[in-house]
Amino acid sequence: xxxxxxxxxxxxxxxxxxxxxxxxxxxxxxxxxxxxxxxxxxxxxxxxxxxxxxxxxxxxxxxxxxxxxxxxxxxxxxxxxxxxxxxxxxxxxxxxxxxxxxxxxxxxxxxxxxxxxxxxxxxxxxxxxxxxxxxxxxxxxxxxxxxxxxxxxxxxxxxxxxxxxxxxxxxxxxxxxxxxxxxxxxxxxxxxxxxxxxxxxxxxxxxxxxxxxxxxxxxxxxxxxxxxxxxxxxxxxxxxxxxxxxxxxxxxxxxxxxxxxxxxxxxxxxxxxxxxxxxxxxxxxxxxxxxxxxxxxxxxxxxxxxxxxxxxxxxxxxxxxxxxxxxxxxxxxxxxxxxxxxxxxxxxxxxxxxxxxxx
Length: 359
Known about the structure:
Blueprint: H1 3-9, H2 18-41, H3 47-65, H4 67-74, H5 79-90, H6 101-108, H7 130-140, H8 142-157, H9 161-170, H10 190-212, H11 218-242, H12 255-260, E1 264-265, H13 270-278, H14 286-291, H15 300-310, E2 321-322, H16 325-335, H17 340-349
Parallel strand pairs: 1-2
Helix pairs in contact: 2-3, 3-11, 7-11, 8-9, 8-10, 11-16
């Protein structure tokens, strides 16, 4: 079974269901905001209830934020969803969707995936484990960097060309490669960029001003900021578990190899619940998503089930399956900074043999 035949098995699954998107997003965002609001009432009086509400808020807001990934793929199909998501989620949480457009396109383009032009890729396999800790550190402080970008740099950059060039190239992409250089917005993206970054700048200047005059208590602000740091670090761990990161040559690889360099989290029972929490909105089937990026997130579980039913047990498709996020992270850790014999195995993994073929 080749990729075209696999696609035929997925007939009817490529249609976006807007109702699922709206209900899922709005419900999680509402629960996230309300849980955080309630948590502040128990600050210092009921530590267990405070921690429980903050945990609920963290994971529901995390799920709401991760819709930025769906927007990167389907924003033209859902312009109203994209606008509302930015207005009530992306802007207030400091992550408007324009930050994800160009870098994510490069991450899926066959000519650029896993290359130096892919800001969402680091060949951890050929580097020391220090690179993993470096990435996690920058993920943890990402909210601080984003706040600096929007509050201090955005509005002045509109009047200072040199500053604007730096902001566009170094402060306008959600990536894991710190040396990544972004590109200016295309003609169709300019309006999105300007309204989103202006709104984010104005919103967060207003928030910080409210904190400065005492209208918003400093403790509440730092609690919310800590929540956002938690969201970023959980997403960083999810990102590390989403790929094998073994393309050390940084040369373009085939679509089949791109799949084999990615991971599906396929554990069942309690593992499936945990996988859904840490890799929400379909991201637990990340390898399958790279094979068929046009599949909406709500179709990925069914698509995975259909493919598994149609292919033999010894199919190379199963090589990308890991039971849990932890098992994928352990695998990445073991393969980072390893010997040349392991590098040879990695080269074989990315040999471009059909993923639907046998091992």
